[in-house]
């Protein structure tokens, strides 16, 4: 990674913080298109990645 790419990442993160986005998870992938960004909504800080957040709660009576 060169300095220009690093500055681009820092600028993206700075813009998110300026928008008052309080949770940021950064992950890289060789499979994603270069320069692509994805965002995921969650219902609260405590359920990130939980079955509830993914919509597959196993203990809910139908």
Commentary on this structure:
It is elongated and about 50 Å long. The longest helix is centred in the first third of the chain and has 16 residues, at 3-18. The mean pLDDT is 79. The protein is an all-alpha fold. Helices cover 32% and strands 0% of the residues. It has helices spanning 3-18, 51-54.
Describe the secondary-structure layout.
Layout: H1 3-18, H2 51-54
User: What's the story with the biggest beta sheet?
Assistant: none
User: What's the end-to-end separation, in Å?
Assistant: 49 Å
The Cα radius of gyration reads 16 Å
- What structural class should be given to the helix and strand makeup? mainly alpha
Continuous helix count:
2
Gross morphology is elongated
Weakly predicted, low-confidence segments: none
Q: Give the SSE string.
A: HH
Beta percentage is: under 5%
Helix content: 25-40%
Strand element count: 0
Instruction: Report mean pLDDT, rounded to a whole number.
Output: 79
Give a quick rundown of the structure:
This protein has 62 residues and is mainly α.
Descriptive keywords:
62 residues, mainly alpha, 2 helices, elongated
